[in-house]
Amino acid sequence: MPASLATLTDRDAARAASPFDLDDDATYRRWRAWKLAHHARTADDLLVDLADPRRLTPPERRRLLDTIARHGAAVYRSPHTEEDPALPRALGAQLGLVQLDANWLADEDGLSRITVAAHRPATGEDERSSTRGEFIPYTDRAIGWHTDGYYHPDARRILSMVLHCVRPARTGGETSVVDHALVYIALRDRAPELIRALMHPEAMVIPARDDEAGTARAAQGGPVFSVVDGVHLHMRYTARTRSIAWRDDEATRTAAAAITELLAAPMPGLVRLTLAPGMGLVGANVLHARSAFADDPAAPRLLYRARYLDRVHADDVEAPWRTG
Q1: Any idea what DSSP says for residue 72?
Q2: Distance from C-alpha of 318 to C-alpha of 297, rounded to nearest angstrom
């Protein structure tokens, strides 16, 4: 075999090796060492300043992609504090995000406006407005650790998101973020069998949700950890203890308890911050949580949320661990 062809074959084989293959410990160890060396120490490690998120400069875009590659997500800061629902979509499009998941509670433009909604419908409200108050994101209560769309089928996995702050709460509303790859590492280091259990297709089941019209959402089972396109780790998770059923075997129960334990402690890479006007979170659908808050009645908390079925296009920077 010519030397050039042999080199190409070796390179392709190295690229195909996956750190999420439980039988490939060498590739896992290399990826693990890189992730642990580059995890976020403070919220500043995630921070990228943008002059205008709707019109990224090449250096700004590169910095966003590099930060997302290392930490799963980036926190951007900009001077644009106006109510502009086009902003999060314009930002997403510049990062390759086009397949917007317009869930049934979103507005006509596909965005969700995250603000406190009345639990009971007001006169003249449409069905979406009158229903939002039944769901915790549209309240002032805390939201536990989760990834978005954990109740979706595999074909509608939420792979990326933009969460843009227009107005914060008067007090509270702190956002917590951690790269789910670090949770994967902690569990695999404890026992690879825990990861195997969490990759089972029925590891976590969300029971059906019924309403007055019947079944509003069918029961949905799926893995906690899965691999997208053979190389990208995805996590499907909620810390809820109601309306959730874990697979009934010892490894799954142990793994679920271990995740709760990890996220209750100051694990490496876990950062907390309060988004200010013009700030936002963008990147993979990483683990995140929200503290309870108190609103200013004259200027209630408002965030725009865009959820996507595709990934941030960071292929040129997302695997630096393969080359050093």
Answers
A1: S
A2: 43
Find how far residue 206's CA is from the centre of its chain.
18
CA distance 137 to 113: 10
CATH number for the domain harbouring residue 84: 3.60.130.10
> CB count, 10 Å around CB of 213?
6
Does a structural domain hold residue 51? yes
What's the pTM value of the predicted model, to 2 decimals? 0.89
In the chain, which residue ranges form alpha helices assigned H by DSSP? 3-16, 25-37, 58-71, 86-94, 127-132, 180-190, 192-198, 250-263
Alpha-carbon span 191 to 289, nearest angstrom:
26
Cα gap 197→252, rounded to integer Å: 5
Cα separation of 161 and 97, whole Å?
A: 9
What is the tally of structural domains in the chain? Answer: 1
Cβ atoms of 163 and 281 closer than 8 Å? yes
- Which domain covers residue 286, as residue numbers? 19-318
Q: How many CA atoms lie within 13 A of 201 on its CB side?
A: 2
User: Do you know the residue count of the chain?
Assistant: 324
Q: What does each of the 324 residues of the chain score in pLDDT, given as a tens digit?
A: 444 444 434 445 555 689 999 999 999 999 999 999 999 999 999 999 999 999 999 999 999 999 999 999 999 999 999 999 999 999 999 999 999 997 656 566 679 999 998 655 444 444 444 455 467 899 999 999 999 999 999 889 999 999 999 999 999 999 999 999 999 999 999 999 999 999 999 999 998 766 565 556 678 999 999 999 888 999 999 998 888 999 999 999 999 999 999 999 999 999 999 999 999 999 999 999 999 999 999 999 999 999 999 999 765 555 667 765
Q: Two tokens at 279? A: 């700030």
Within-domain flag for 8: no
